[in-house]
């Protein structure tokens, strides 16, 4: 219920201020389990990604969103609960398996599960190599996979920018369902998981128009920071815009 209350509050405000748009909403089944596999460009994705869907989208988010203290922690918990985020431990190992089981439970209950295969937000607006967890979810649940592409949210609210820029219309595109039935029963094959994941990322690349980089986003972000110690400061200055230093 809280999800729909938050959405009812955000809908008129976001439409009035940002005039968002959507394509392919009809590609998302009206009932039954669905995996929305999306690119992740900005914090703004949490606002606009599911705005046009008549179904609740449940996503998996890091547990730290729900463990903060004080007013900031309370606001964070309320926001991420309101946008349908379920907390998970992302420390790897057994935690990764637990996250997978949580995703399978959500799908088993017939819900829409939103997932970002890149694992983190893109630091430069490009599309990065997907992690194979999305493939395991698709093959074990046998739920249809819908490519879910955010458009313009990186330009609106790049990393380091606390507030969105005005004058940019964000959009979201829902691609046609991807069929992986030829791989059912092969979810323990690493080559199959990689093939399925790459097919999903290729569909996202075509839908979003992003440049694809065959490298994990977290590694690329770390490399960029190492090669340019002042990269974070530069990104923050660009996000502020001219004349705001």
From TrEMBL:
<feature type="domain" description="Phospholipid/glycerol acyltransferase">
    <location>
        <begin position="34"/>
        <end position="153"/>
    </location>
</feature>
<protein>
    <submittedName>
        <fullName>1-acyl-sn-glycerol-3-phosphate acyltransferase</fullName>
    </submittedName>
</protein>
<feature type="compositionally biased region" description="Basic and acidic residues">
    <location>
        <begin position="223"/>
        <end position="245"/>
    </location>
</feature>
<dbReference type="GO" id="GO:0005886">
    <property type="term" value="C:plasma membrane"/>
</dbReference>
<keyword id="KW-0012">Acyltransferase</keyword>
<dbReference type="GO" id="GO:0006654">
    <property type="term" value="P:phosphatidic acid biosynthetic process"/>
</dbReference>
<keyword id="KW-0808">Transferase</keyword>
<dbReference type="GO" id="GO:0003841">
    <property type="term" value="F:1-acylglycerol-3-phosphate O-acyltransferase activity"/>
</dbReference>
<dbReference type="Pfam" id="PF01553">
    <property type="entry name" value="Acyltransferase"/>
</dbReference>
<dbReference type="InterPro" id="IPR002123">
    <property type="entry name" value="Plipid/glycerol_acylTrfase"/>
</dbReference>
<feature type="region of interest" description="Disordered">
    <location>
        <begin position="218"/>
        <end position="245"/>
    </location>
</feature>
């Amino acid at each position: 219920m809280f999800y729909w209350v938050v959405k009812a509050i955000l809908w008129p405000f976001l439409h009035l201020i940002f005039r968002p748009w959507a394509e392919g909403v009809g590609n998302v089944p009206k009932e039954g389990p669905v995996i929305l596999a999306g690119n992740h460009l900005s914090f703004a994705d949490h606002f606009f990604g599911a705005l046009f869907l008549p179904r609740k989208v449940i996503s998996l988010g890091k547990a730290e969103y729900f463990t903060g203290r004080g007013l900031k922690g309370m606001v964070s918990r309320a926001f991420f609960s309101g946008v349908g985020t379920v907390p998970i431990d992302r420390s790897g190992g057994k935690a990764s398996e637990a996250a997978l089981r949580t995703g399978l439970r959500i799908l088993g209950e017939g819900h829409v599960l939103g997932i970002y295969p890149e694992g983190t937000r893109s630091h430069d607006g490009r599309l990065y190599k997907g992690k194979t967890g999305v493939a395991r979810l698709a093959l074990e649940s046998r739920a249809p996979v819908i490519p879910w592409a955010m458009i313009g949210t990186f330009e609106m609210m790049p990393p380091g920018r606390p507030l969105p820029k005005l004058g940019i219309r964000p959009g979201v595109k829902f691609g046609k369902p991807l069929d992986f039935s030829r791989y059912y029963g092969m979810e323990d094959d690493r080559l199959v998981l990689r093939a399925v994941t790459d097919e999903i990322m290729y569909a996202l690349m075509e839908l979003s128009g992003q440049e694809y980089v065959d490298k994990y986003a977290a590694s690329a972000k770390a490399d960029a920071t190492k090669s340019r110690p002042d990269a974070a400061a530069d990104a923050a200055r660009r996000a502020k815009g001219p004349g705001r230093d």
